[in-house]
Amino acid sequence: MDQFSSSDFGAAFKWGVAISAFQNEGAHDAQGKGMSVWDAFTARKGKIKDGTHARHACNFFELYAEDIALAKQMGFTVFRFSLSWCRIIPNGTGAVNQAGIDFYHRVIDACLAAGLEPYVTLYHWDLPQALEQKGGWCHRGTVFAFEAFAALCARAYGHKVKNWLVLNEPFGFTSLGYMLGVHAPGKFGLSYFLPAVHHVALAQAEGGRALRAEAPGARVGTTYSCSQIIPYTTNNNDLQAARRADALFNRLFIEPSLGMGYPADAFPLLKRIERRYALWRDWEKLPFHFDFIGLQNYFPLVVRYNAFMPYVQASEVKARYRQVPLTGLGWEISGQGMYSILQQFAAYKGVKEIMVTESGAAFDDVLRNGEVKDDERIRYFQEYLSAVLLAKRSGVPVSGYFAWTLTDNFEWAEGYKARFGLVHVDFDTQRRTMKDSGKWFRELLAQPAPQSAKRRGPEAASR
Ligand code: BGC
Question: Ligand 1 pocket by C-beta < 6 Å: which residues?
Answer without folding.
Answer: 20, 23, 168-169, 172, 225, 296, 358, 404, 411, 420
